[in-house]
């Protein structure tokens, strides 16, 4: 197993496979390198150097007593890129992973990054005046706080997030496998991350992303993102293009893996 120690000493697990232009993969919340990219790692590594990172508190990475936030994960990404001396990487983040990438740009600009892929990311979860794209189509701040409070009483509310992640649900065995991976994230870590996501707002940051960007959004039964958020994000960014997946929901990398892998590979090599 390969690890890089974060600035606070937390070991960050990563996989490094293939050769070619570097492609860094950042998984979604409460999932893992080894359980999240099962349909992607090997195909992408056929023509790219793929570096897939477990966020702190996830999978094989360390699980400190605290320091669970988007900023800490962005710092960890910088530490890994520096340690491996990666230059001109394409960074591809799914949902929470894309928020980590946007936080990286806020903190470090495009250092070591040549391209960005944003997959199923939200940039402002909760309702706001004039905001047409909140999570679920309607997500009051009070509802977010209520969810966090419920999670402090029981882990049970966290078990339902996978159900809304697919336009077409996987088999029961696959869902059980994914749930097993999700349980590797401690409850308090998940609560802290979700609280940080609810508080985050990256709308104003989009115009400052100065690298070519690929946006991928599913449109089939997409419970977390029912609106045309991807189109709105594309309009805010200086150099972005949107790819819609009509037959996938919130997990296009899994539901339409062949198309996803082809698009991402082509983008890396452009």
Give a nutshell description of this structure:
The protein has 270 residues and is of the alpha/beta class. The chain has helices at 33-36, 41-44, 70-83, 96-108, 141-153, 172-182, 187-199, 229-236, 252-255, 257-269, and strands spanning 2-5, 11-17, 22-26, 49-53, 89-94, 113-119, 213-218, 240-245.
Structure description:
By secondary structure, this protein is an alpha/beta fold. It has a single domain (2-269), classed as Alpha/Beta hydrolase fold, catalytic domain (Rossmann fold). It has 10 helices and 8 strands. Strands 1-2-4-3-5-6-7-8 form an 8-stranded mixed sheet, sandwiched between helices. Strand 5, helix 4 (96-108) and strand 6 (113-119) form a beta-alpha-beta unit. The radius of gyration is 17 Å and the shape is globular. The mean pLDDT is 96.
Specify the CATH architecture. 3-Layer(aba) Sandwich
Q: What's the average pLDDT?
A: 96
Overall structural domain count: 1
> For this structure, what is the CATH homologous superfamily?
Alpha/Beta hydrolase fold, catalytic domain
Radius of gyration: 17 Å
How many β-strands, per DSSP? 8
**Which outline best applies?**
globular
The helical percent reads: 25-40%
Sheet of most strands: 8 strands, mixed
| N-end to C-end Cα span | 31 Å
β content, as a range? 15-25%
Q: In CATH terms, what is the fold-level topology?
A: Rossmann fold
Class derived from helix and strand content: alpha/beta
Q: Class in CATH? A: Alpha Beta
**Major sheet: order of its strands?**
1-2-4-3-5-6-7-8
* Number of continuous helical runs: 10
List the helices and strands in order.
EEEHHEHEHEHHHEHEHH
As residue ranges, the low-confidence spans are none
């Amino acid at each position: 197993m390969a690890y890089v120690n974060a600035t606070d000493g937390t070991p960050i697990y990563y996989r490094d496979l293939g050769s070619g232009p570097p492609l860094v993969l950042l998984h979604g919340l409460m999932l893992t390198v080894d359980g999240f990219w099962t349909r992607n790692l090997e195909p992408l590594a056929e023509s790219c150097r793929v570096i897939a990172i477990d966020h702190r508190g996830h999978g094989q990475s360390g699980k400190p007593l605290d320091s669970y936030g988007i900023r800490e994960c962005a710092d960890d990404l910088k530490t890994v890129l520096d340690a491996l001396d990666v230059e001109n990487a394409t960074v591809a983040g799914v949902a929470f992973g894309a928020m980590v990438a946007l936080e990286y740009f806020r903190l470090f600009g495009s250092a070591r990054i040549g391209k960005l892929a944003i997959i199923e990311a939200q940039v402002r979860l909760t309702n706001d005046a004039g905001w047409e794209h909140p999570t679920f189509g309607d997500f009051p701040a009070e509802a977010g706080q209520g969810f966090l409070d419920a999670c402090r009483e029981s882990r049970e509310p966290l078990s339902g997030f996978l159900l809304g992640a697919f336009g077409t649900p996987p088999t029961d065995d696959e869902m059980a496998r994914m749930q097993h991976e999700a349980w590797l994230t401690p409850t308090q870590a998940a609560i802290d991350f979700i609280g940080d996501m609810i508080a985050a707002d990256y709308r104003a940051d989009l115009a400052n992303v100065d690298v070519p960007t690929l946006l991928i959004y599913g449109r089939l039964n997409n419970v977390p993102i029912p609106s045309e958020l991807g189109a709105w994000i594309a309009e805010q960014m200086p150099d972005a293009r949107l790819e819609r997946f009509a037959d996938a929901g919130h997990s296009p990398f899994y539901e339409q893996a062949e198309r996803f892998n082809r698009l991402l590979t082509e983008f890396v090599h452009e």
